[in-house]
Design brief:
Layout: H1 16-20, H2 23-39, E1 48-49, E2 52-53, H3 59-67, E3 76-80, E4 83-87, E5 94-96, H4 98-105, H5 112-117, E6 125-126, E7 130-132, H6 134-148, E8 156-160, E9 163-167, E10 172-175, H7 177-183, H8 185-190, E11 197-198, E12 201-204, H9 210-224, E13 229-233, E14 236-240, H10 242-247, E15 249-253, E16 259-263, H11 265-270, H12 272-279, E17 289-293, E18 296-301, E19 306-308, H13 311-318, E20 330-332, E21 336-338, E22 354-362, H14 367-380, E23 383-385, E24 390-392, H15 393-397, E25 408-413, E26 416-421, H16 426-439, E27 442-445, E28 472-474, E29 481-487, E30 491-498, E31 504-509, E32 513-516, E33 520-523, E34 536-547, E35 550-561, E36 566-569
Parallel strand pairs: 1-6, 3-11, 13-20, 33-36
Antiparallel strand pairs: 1-2, 3-4, 5-7, 8-9, 10-12, 13-14, 15-16, 17-18, 19-21, 22-30, 23-29, 24-28, 25-26, 27-28, 29-30, 31-34, 32-34, 34-35
Helix pairs in contact: 6-7
Length: 576
């Protein structure tokens, strides 16, 4: 129950003097007194805060009344761009400042103007004062930013299974946390969780607009996917469907946000629809094939130029066709002709006129040996070594792997026979070494087997190992050298053709020295290969150069052979 308002004493009569000259003074004094009695310590009648009537209450009573009221809505719905979230005002540090609010609702002082004014006015709606803990507010709004911020998205055009796909652009928004702290004061005061507050944010416009997407689709994308294109390269004709083209076609924005087509020519080149026809073209040139005929070199097959289709040429042919229609969607791919080094016409100019040397190695037939020797011969045959160049066995033949056409065979490993990829290739290396030896060109790298193998000439044989030992020679003859290689199931022959620098090159072998006898070893290894014994020794072979019937020089080749121990293979006790 509200306290009763104090009554103001009625004034019944005033002296004439007071009425004439002191009426105003007495009247003001009375009003001041009445004002103090009416307003003293109480909130003016009709005063409300957020709809709560506080009129006639003392400050303490008004404070208790406001404390019993809800401080504000439990959540504040907010929106940034097209994304929505909520803010818990309590966690965000938004509270009603009751003392400051009551300062606005209670009389401001005991001066005559304020006291007398209280007699002639009534209270009204007082706007509450909101206190904000800005650290808490920024922390809470930072979490909101994590959920509502979004990057700008450019419009885009892509291709899927021959169809045109469009991506609509989207404006980016980044919440302005500092500005949003004040922006939430008013919604908190309204006390309603129904309305959504649009928070201030920084906008980022997409670089590629919706208009640009529509233009790119209209002018390029739809025409590109409208029909296949047909290409011809080196006489090979092939057709590419929209689905194939779309896999390697994109549209990328330039610096001005304009979408431009980009074709992955390298990727398109590997597509079966393209690679199949282009792989039928003679990509690598083929030298004219030479063979010794007596002491001469003769051309046995003409050269053939190679045809190369570059990624750039493929893209240059395809892109202009994509915006055309009908029969105009067909075109020619430029090809580059790669000329061979040796042709029927230039063989003599290169100095490929006579046989320099020829050597043959015979071996026992074996399926692995026939395969591996034949594969190495195919890779070596037709090699051309220009003056000053160095020829490498490993570079020419490549790794002896299944992918390169080689199979497992018997070879020497750790001073004994073992199964390994490329076994038997040493027969080709030895043949090349001897052809090089008698051609008179300069050896650069070579190495003999660890122990002697009877089918090879002592001190004039070579082995190779991928990644560790190569067979190399430098062509110091002054003219080009052509290597002809051929094989059968039991032999391999290598001939060097070019221009003779010396009349004759012969070999002189010295005696065996430092002879050492082998041992006998027993092996129970599952991969054991039996091995017959043979003594080890050192030997020197000299290469003798003669010109116009006289000896010009000698070159020694010194070789050390370890003993070839006898290997007896036995089964383990568990296998008996």
């Amino acid at each position: 129950m509200r306290p009763r308002m104090p009554s103001v004493p009625r004034i019944t009569s005033l002296p004439p003097l007071a009425l004439a000259g002191g009426a105003l003074t007495v009247g003001v004094g009375g009003l001041y007194l009445a004002g103090l009695l009416v307003t003293g310590g109480e909130i003016e009648a009709g005063t409300t805060v957020r709809g709560v009537d506080l009129g006639g209450l003392t400050r303490e009573e008004a404070a208790r009344t406001l404390e019993r009221q809800p401080a504000g809505p439990e959540v504040l719905p907010v929106k940034v761009g097209d994304r929505r979230a909520t803010v818990d005002p309590r966690q965000a540090g938004y509270t009603l400042d009751i003392p400051a609010t009551l300062d606005r609702a209670t009389p401001t002082g005991a001066d005559p103007v304020s006291a007398i004014g209280g007699l002639f006015r009534s209270g009204g709606a007082i706007e509450p004062v909101v206190h904000v803990d800005e650290d808490k507010a920024r922390a809470a709004l930072g979490k909101v930013a994590d959920t509502v911020d979004q990057k700008a998205r450019d419009g885009a055009v892509s291709f899927e299974d021959g169809r045109v796909e469009q991506v609509a652009p989207r404006t980016g928004y980044a919440l302005d946390v500092d500005a949003s702290v004040d922006a939430l004061r008013a919604p908190f005061l309204r006390g309603s969780a129904d309305s959504v507050t649009v928070l201030p944010a920084r906008e980022t416009a997409p670089k590629v607009t919706a208009d640009e997407v529509r233009r790119a689709v209209r002018e390029f994308a739809r025409p590109a996917m409208s029909a296949p294109v047909t290409l011809t390269a080196g006489g090979e004709r092939f057709t590419l469907s929209p689905a194939v083209l779309g896999k390697h076609l994109t549209m990328r924005p330039d610096d001005d946000g304009r979408l431009t087509p980009k074709l992955d020519s390298r990727g398109l080149r590997t597509a079966p629809e393209v690679a199949g026809p282009l792989n039928k073209l003679p990509a690598a040139p083929r030298n004219a094939q030479l063979a010794p005929s007596g002491d001469k070199a003769v051309v046995t097959a003409d050269a053939r130029a190679g045809l190369e289709v570059t990624d750039k040429a493929l893209g240059k042919a395809v892109l202009p066709l994509l915006t055309r229609s009908g029969t105009d969607r067909a075109g020619e791919v430029d090809t580059r002709r790669i000329q061979p080094e040796v042709t029927r016409e230039n063989a003599a100019r290169l100095g490929l006129t006579e046989k320099l040397s020829s050597f043959t190695v015979n071996f026992e037939p074996a399926a692995y040996r026939t395969t591996n020797v034949g594969r190495a011969v195919d890779l070596i045959n037709g090699s051309v070594v220009m003056p000053g160049e160095t020829w490498s066995f490993n570079r020419t033949v490549g790794a002896r792997t299944e992918a390169n056409g080689f199979v497992d065979g018997i070879m020497i490993y750790d001073d004994q026979y073992a199964k390994a990829p490329g076994g038997g290739v040493s027969a080709v290396a030895t043949t090349v070494f001897n052809a090089m030896f008698f051609a008179g060109v300069k050896p650069v790298e070579h190495g003999a087997h660890s122990f002697y193998i009877e089918r090879y000439p002592e001190g004039r044989e070579a082995t190779v190992a991928w990644g560790s030992l190569d067979l190399k020679f430098a062509n110091d003859s002054g003219k080009a050298v052509y290597i002809q290689a051929e094989s059968t199931e039991t032999s391999v022959t290598v001939s060097f053709l070019g221009t003779r620098k010396y009349d004759e090159i012969t070999s002189v072998k010295g005696p065996r020295t430092q002879v050492k006898q082998p041992e006998t070893k027993v092996s129970t290894d599952e991969q054991c290969v039996p091995q017959t014994p043979l003594e080890g020794f050192d030997v020197t072979v000299e290469r003798v150069f003669r010109d116009e019937g006289r000896e010009v020089k000698r070159e020694p080749f010194r070789t050390h052979y370890a003993p070839r121990n006898e290997i007896v293979c036995e089964e383990t006790p568990d296998e008996l």
